[in-house]
Amino acid sequence: xxxxxxxxxxxxxxxxxxxxxxxxxxxxxxxxxxxxxxxxxxxxxxxxxxxxxxxxxxxxxxxxxxxxxxxxxxxxxxxxxxxx
Length: 84
Hints:
Layout: H1 2-27, H2 32-42, H3 51-59
Helix pairs in contact: 1-2
């Protein structure tokens, strides 16, 4: 259980640090190259392009759902024939 706790703590710390670095990068505070270097050390596959769509989508107003065509109903069933 101790190993698992260490792994979780490491992961949570990395998430908090990435959020902080991304916020600094977006705000333009500090040296951009230095911030990108730190982000790449934490997450080698991260790209700066991944930062832009996520923030643009969050700021945009949600689109209205388009009106759906009414669903067709099944034809009525024929009444059962009486038993003789």
